[in-house]
Amino acid sequence: MAEYGVHSEVGKLRKVIVHRPGLEMERLTPSNAEELLFDDVIWVRRARRAHDVFVDLMREEFGVQVMRVHELLADVVADPEGRAYLLDNRLTVNEVGLNGQRELRAWMDEMQPTELVSYLIGGVTVDDLPPDFRAVARKAWAAAHFVMPPLPNQLFTRDSSAWIYNGVTLNPMYWPARHKESLHMAAIYKYHPEFKGGDFKIWWGDPPTANWAEAKMEGGDIMPVGKGIVLIGMGERTTYQAVGQVAQALFDNHAATRVIAAKMPPDRASMHLDTIFTFCDRDLVTIFEPAVRTITPISYYPGDDGTPEVVIEERGWLEVVQDALGLDELRVVPTAGDVFAREREQWNDGNNVVAMEPGVVIGYSRNEGTNIRLRKAGITVREIDGSELGRGRGGGHCMTCPVLRDPVYD
């Protein structure tokens, strides 16, 4: 029986899901990048090479079982039931129209698994369509028109689903450009042999195609830190409507004893908690100090009537986290440099490192000052090239969805 469960932010990482840049990145252009939530187009070949180095480092040096989204989905669509689940939910009349639903379904049902997954993530243009349907579609749309848009943010696997102790959330994400990523992860958890019938629960967010209205959540805001505590950022992309529901689901299932929300300003630089605050060791965090100072901590506890009790904390974020974990001291490594350098390194994911084990993290080489500070604090920093991977505003923490991670506290 496969094992699952994420019990800390820094315990030994055992299993993780990532996504290697593919066709979707080749279809990122200056004219569509903003709509697809990228600040710029990327050099795809270099991004793939850097991602391969990242995966090899995790596998070969740290013994992590690394699973890639496109490979997992290829196994899912090789199963008729899994294929039907995905195509039923991707090719709806509301998404692709009446003719599109009929024609696309017939065409995609005949595809080999690898080709189908390439289009599900990479998108479908008018020029990709089979000849008869293409001839009709070209009368209404340009050849490069997306019949199904690409999903370049699938790269950031942390966001679409998040493991919290012995279960997972399927996250209704904030921007429409990302909604289908959660459906892909749902298909993996429901139909891939690694997960199908596994001993875990979906805490919240199922079905991912439901209208979740104002209840939005992304995994970059979610941190199960241990001792029954979960930290959840509440800023640009995660709302209080979602946080309350997740807290209640965890409490109802006795999966957590306290959820601490970080109320943050809703701006792009601090889009997720993990862009301004990540753990590097059991008692050490790296932070972007100007943003962390603005956090209002809000604690959720199990309520007597089944509804979570909410307490707005009067102390600062770091003090609340330190006390919740029972630490004598929470060591802090701020982003390095003067006021300009700090802002640059935070923007380039200097605080978005991912731990392989206590005191060992992977980060981008471009964040020289912050990496030096972490090393001086006793943290081992293994560097990868972030010149292309980071253009979507995400580092190693964003690019990983841990599935099995050890606890670090008794």
Number of domains: 2
The CATH homologous superfamily of the largest domain is called L-arginine/glycine Amidinotransferase, Chain A
The Rg value, from CA coordinates, equals 21 Å
Number of helices: 15
Helix content, binned percent: 25-40%
Major β-sheet, in short? 5 strands, mixed
CATH fold naming of the largest domain: L-arginine/glycine Amidinotransferase, Chain A
Structural class: alpha/beta
Q: List unreliable stretches of 5+ residues.
A: none
**What form results from the Cα inertia axes?**
globular
What report would you give on this structure?
The structure is a single chain. The chain is of the alpha/beta class and 410 residues long. It folds into two domains: 5-69 and 152-405, L-arginine/glycine Amidinotransferase, Chain A; 72-148, Pentein. 33% of the residues lie in helices and 21% in strands. It contains 15 helices and 20 strands. Strands 9-10-11-14-15 form a five-stranded mixed β-sheet, sandwiched between helices. Strands 1-20-2-3 form a four-stranded mixed β-sheet. Strands 6-7-8 form a three-stranded mixed β-sheet. Helix 10 (179-191) links the parallel strand 7 and strand 8 (201-204). The chain is globular and about 70 Å long. It starts with a strand and ends in a 5-residue tail after the last strand. The model has no long low-confidence stretch (mean pLDDT 92).
